[in-house]
Specification:
This protein has about 350 residues and is of the alpha/beta class. Helices cover about 40% and strands about 15% of the residues. It has one domain: TIM Barrel (Alpha-Beta Barrel). It contains 13 helices and 10 strands. Strand 6, helix 4 and strand 7 form a beta-alpha-beta unit. Helix 1 packs parallel to helix 10, helix 8 crosses helix 9 and helix 8 packs antiparallel against helix 11.
Length: about 350
């Protein structure tokens, strides 16, 4: 295990982050307390120090189990949790991005985790009701109070993140140094705006669903495997995505590893500061995913995977990258310029 600086900060985190949504059985799947501890210990033994949870995961059990695990050596671990999602259903102020919910959610997370501070506190999802300056000032107050070390933002449009960080910079408040998003070989739309934005602000990216909800493990081999599946799972099992999965399986066979290792390593090698989230329901599953660190993708493999999963960038990206507009913009000098700011 190697370590990375967490975006525009000096915080050192392991190159993989353990997601602990599986800690607890309240949602009908997941690990009991003993197995959660085995998962935690296996990750630490491999050199991992970065853990991700949220106030809503398994109705708070995820935080409680993780809190029990970190007690023996709290300073060693980088603990990230989140707020926004509701804690009391039908209670209008027990959810959202606003200051009141932030303060009460943070205090509850601190109690469940059994700690005095959170290393990375994520805004979980943008609610489109709270002003950006309220969010950034409230988060800065929590940092100044010593309850939070660093802040990040998840599942939010790029223009809002950019506005928040610019506002914070101008007013001397704490800025987001982490971005959490869905990103994988079957979900590359963040390349349009979110990932270039993250690079511009020097933000660490912690992608979730890097295995595409299981599609990229190769366990779905044909259209028949979609029978009876509904909603998001069915959408992921499109012909296009299954075609990408077949390429992943082929590359894995050539390397001598599992398809999941290929999917994880493709994300790890993408431009920017990528720290994939991995999760498991058993310690054995975690060990299987950690084995991705033992394998490498060649440039040729990366190119094949890029080609089969490529998306249309859309306007204005395709327009601005066209030969005609570049000729008008640069007067024929574009090929002479080495542009280190080239977007993803």
């Amino acid at each position: 295990m190697r370590y990375k600086l967490f975006g525009r900060s000096g915080l050192r985190v392991s190159e993989l982050c353990l997601g602990t949504m599986t800690f607890g059985e309240e949602w009908g799947w997941g690990a009991d307390q003993k197995e959660s501890r085995r998962i935690f210990d296996a990750f630490v033994e491999a050199g991992g120090n970065f853990f991700d949870t949220a106030n809503r995961y398994t109705e708070g059990t995820s935080e409680r189990y993780l809190g029990d695990c970190i007690q023996s050596d709290r300073e060693r671990y980088v603990v990230a949790t989140k707020y926004t999602l509701h804690t009391r259903r039908d209670e209008v102020n027990s959810n959202g991005n606003h200051r009141k919910n932030m303060v009460q959610a943070l205090d509850a997370s601190l109690r469940r985790l059994g700690t005095d501070y959170i290393d990375v506190y994520w805004l979980h999802a943008w609610d489109f009701t709270t002003p950006e300056d309220e969010v950034m000032r409230a988060l800065d107050d929590m940092v100044r109070a010593g309850k939070i070390m660093y802040i990040g933002i998840s599942d939010t449009p790029a223009w809002i993140v950019a506005r928040c960080n610019t506002l914070a910079e101008l007013r001397g408040w704490t800025q987001f140094v982490g971005l959490q998003i869905e990103y994988s070989l079957i979900q590359r739309t963040p390349e349009r705006d979110l990932l270039p934005m993250a690079q511009a602000f020097d933000m660490a990216v912690t992608p979730w669903a890097v295995l595409g909800g299981g599609v990229l493990t190769g366990k779905y081999g044909s259209r028949g495997d979609r029978a009876g599946r509904l909603g998001e799972e069915s959408k992921r099992l499109s012909d296009h995505n299954l075609g990408i999965a077949r390429t992943v399986v082929d590359v894995a066979a050539e390397i001598g590893c599992k398809p999941a290792h290929v999917a994880i390593n493709w994300v790890r090698r993408r431009p920017g500061l990528m720290i994939p989230l991995i999760g498991a329901r058993t310690a054995a599953q975690l060990q299987d995913n950690l084995a991705a660190l033992e394998h490498q993708l060649s440039d040729e493999h990366m190119q094949r995977l890029d080609d089969v999963s490529r998306i249309e960038m859309g306007f204005p990206h395709d327009f601005l990258s066209g030969d005609n507009i570049r000729d008008v913009l640069f007067g024929g000098t574009w090929p002479l310029i080495d542009n280190h700011r080239q977007s993803v």
